[in-house]
Amino acid sequence: MSHPAEASRHHAFVDACRTAIGATYVLTDPRDTAPFTTDWRRRYNGATLAVLCPSSAQEVAALVRLAVEHRVVIVPQGGNTGLAGGATPDGSGEQAVLSLKRLNRVRDVDPHNNTITVEAGVVLADVQARAQEAGRLFPLSLAAEGSCTIGGNLATNAGGTGVLRYGNTRELCLGLEVVTAQGELWDGLRGLRKDNTGYDLRDLFIGAEGTLGIITAAVMKLHPQPAARVTALAALASPHAALDFLALAQRFAGPLLTGFELMSDFCLKLVGTHFPQMRYPFAESHAQAVLLELSDSESEEHARALFERLMEHALDEGLVEDAVVAENIAQSRAFWNLREHIPLAQAEEGLNIKHDIAVPISRIGHFIDETDAAIAQHAPGARMVTFGHLGDGNLHYNVQAPEGVDAKAFLKQYQSSINQIVYDSVHRHRGSISAEHGLGQLKIDEAMHYKQPVEVQLMRTLKAALDPLNLMNAGKVIR
Fold first, then answer.
1. Cβ atoms of residues 78 and 148 within 8 Å
2. DSSP single-letter state for residue 7
3. Pairwise CA distance, residues 374 & 401, whole Å
4. CA distance 118 to 198
5. Where in the sequence is the signal peptide annotated (predicted)?
6. What is the mean pLDDT of the chain?
7. Which of 436, 386, 389, 169 lies closest to 259 in space, CA to CA?
8. Which helix (H) or strand (E) is 302 found in, with range?
């Protein structure tokens, strides 16, 4: 129970917030706050003093100044679709959630500069749609795009399926508007490709998960709409063959290659088991499959001709065992649905041990071979659900309980030890234990363990300099 003085301070804070943004937008009833205090995977359940719903950057700044005055931790939250608990308050009931959903305006679309300026609460799918209306492409694409927000994408430096061609969210951002931990507003909304005027403050806040300040708006890059997209599925014998196929595809297609997704045979069969309408795409089983996509600025005929030459060489060299090219948009969508339903099929199959890791692309085959063998020896019968963005080295390397084994009991017995096997292997291969989901509160201990001491100290120095009171999303990313 809170000390009376603390309870009085918290009440004063909430009252001041009501005055600042209106009582309607300060939620305190547990029935209203519940959707904001549980993460998307339902791994973390927190509590909150209040959920604050400002409608402008100026209101965000006012609320942060009140948090400083009353010493209240602020937890920024976008669409609440994160996978590492980074936007969930702790269980103390003394932190305030600051929802950015009402900052949902598209401020400007500039086709000549190929930029769009959006507030942090704009849903990713809406950014894509507004870009398309202007005849442009916003290439960030991920499964949660119908509910995640651009602020959350920036805070976690989200990846998705287009990183191979267009880069992570960081590479798609030119400028930011940020409320600092002191409640000051920094307007860095400059749509410049070149700006060498000192430290790159923008990159400090991207990927920081709200621990250094709160992103309220951003200038994002747009690209020309491709004239055609052509999608194919290729069957291969191993991840090693997939890497050779990637090199061949890059040699043939260069920057036209926009997607290259690896999926194991078990992944595809798992989708077929739980979603029977999504049939296995090949006549017989193959160890691995790759979903690849070309985006062509010339024509569909040009893209298909290039695809045919690529597949002919891949088949002749024995890299590809079978292949099918989408004949229309519906079939292309069906191929992508196979890929996107893997996490859903996993959830239907039962609890599992998830890993969002990255290793150098050239090491992926060796990583999978070595780590699969180590897990098979440690937990016989464990089923590996391995899929991800092969073109950028990001694997979703997940472990399902053996068939017929209680999933909850399996996780209780093996989760910690399997995590260590996977992360030790990632470290040996000079990789990262978080590729696109962030650290949140899920992976702080592991990050502190695997990072070099000098790296951890530099992070702590930045945190102390920008947020000396530790009020910005305390308990996330860094200890």
1. yes
2. H
3. 15
4. 25
5. none
6. 94
7. 389
8. helix 300-316
**In angstroms, rounded to a whole number, what is the distance separating the alpha carbons of residues 280 and 341?**
13
Distance in angstroms (rounded) separating the CA atoms of residues 324 and 443: 39
Q: Percent of the chain at pLDDT above 70? A: 100
**DSSP code at position 136:** E
pLDDT over 90 at 143, yes or no: no
- The tens digit of pLDDT for each residue in 413-432 reads 999 999 999 999 999 999 99
Q: How far apart are CA 439 and CA 356, in angstroms?
A: 10
Give residue 2's pLDDT. Answer: 58
Lowest mean per-residue pLDDT among 86-100, 105-119, 147-161, 295-309: 295-309
Contact 262, 387 (CB under 8 A): yes
CA distances to 365, 375, 394 from 360, in Å: 10, 21, 9
Cα torsion at 218, 224, 228, 233 (round to 10°)?
-40
When pLDDT is cut at 50, 70 and 90, the band that residue 146 belongs to is very high
Range 202-230 average pLDDT:
96
Answer whether residue 373 shows pLDDT above 60.
yes
1 by DSSP, 3-state: which? Answer: coil
| Dihedral angle over CA of 10, 12, 17, 18, nearest 10 | 120
Which ranges of 328-363 does DSSP label H, i.e. alpha helix? Answer: 329-340, 342-349
Output the 3-class SS for 177-193. EEEECCCCEEEECCCCC
pTM for this predicted structure: 0.92
Cα 250 from chain centroid (whole Å): 24
Mean pLDDT value across residues 152-161: 93
Q: Which residue has the tokens 């949660």?
A: 144
Q: What share of the chain is helix, strand, coil (3-state, %, to 5)?
A: 40, 20, 35
Q: Are 60 and 103 in contact (CB under 8 A)?
A: yes
CB 234 within 8 A of CB 322: yes
d(CA 324, CA 282): 8
For 246, residues 6+ apart whose C-beta sits below 8 A from its C-beta are: 260, 290, 361, 390, 391
∠ Cα 269 271 274 (to 5°): 110
**3-state SS assignment for residue 133:** helix
3-class SS at 265? Answer: helix
Pair 477, 440: CB distance under 8 Å: yes
Q: Residue 1 corresponds to which tokens in the numbers above? A: 């129970």
Helix H or strand E encompassing 325: strand 322-325
- Of 309, 307, 289, 282, which Cα lies nearest the Cα of 242? 289
Spell out the domains of the chain, with CATH numbers in brackets: 4-99 (3.30.43.10), 106-224 (3.30.465.10), 228-334 (3.30.70.2190), 344-428 (3.30.70.2740)
Question: Tokens 């679709």 label which residue?
Answer: 81
Taking the C-alpha atoms of residue 116 and residue 120, their distance in angstroms, rounded to an integer, is: 12
